[in-house]
Write a structure and sequence with these properties.
about 280 residues, 10 strands
Length: about 280
Amino acid sequence: MVRLSIITINYNNREGLARTIASVKAQNFSDYEWLVIDGGSTDGSRELIEANKALFAYWCSEPDKGIYDAINKGTRHASGQYVSCMNSGDTYFSDDTLSRVFASPLTADVIYGDWYKVYPERRVLCSMPCPLDLSIFYYHNICHQAMFVRTSALQEKGFDLSYAVCADYARWMEMLFAGATFQRVDTIICSYDMTGVSSQRGAGWEECQRIRREIIPDWLRPVMERLDGYESTPDHIYLLHVRERGGCLRFLVHNLLKLTNLLFFHIDRDRLYSHRLPGQSPELP
């Protein structure tokens, strides 16, 4: 078994696909297979795939039902220990990214690292702490390009296609409550193209609310609904503090959720972060 299955999905993004192909080809790590799932592109993507088909363990170009249907299709053909989803337009951060990730033993169900959000005019470094728990996942998602997920977990249950934008967030939440293990690697994994559909401001807000309602256990739901009420208040001062600045109210809720996690997930209290929230890294030019 190879250690890694890289899945690249694409639809009418030949330029982005070319960047992703160049990034994967540049890796100095070789213990992987590569699967390319194209949604039936008409912009020359298929011809680019055919020109590089010797690199791929599997490829296809046919209509699908969107991003997560394409990833599910790739996962069904994957034989690696872990899956890395590197969509067209996204790239690994450096030529030795995969070598750095797999340099030490990996035992968790989900491996994750840091990533850059790449906008047309800037890029922003994003980081998630260790350990991960509900108090982190309630506010934040990890882009799937910065994750390596055990293949068997995705083959057992793929992404729910009823979520058009946030199916990955739903799957991570399900895995969290099912007792999956998460392991952080101290490296920047990828540069994530922020011009995609799921990256647009406000995309998937209703889906996130549905995920919180349907996946979080019943006994936690009243607390979550109260928090949702705070987050959606029309009071701009509270919005400023709760949703943008991580003010007093969010500080209290964050640590109440950590207490819940301590009881529910049995996390070693010595490893808990206190009030530091992720996503506060400075922007880089």
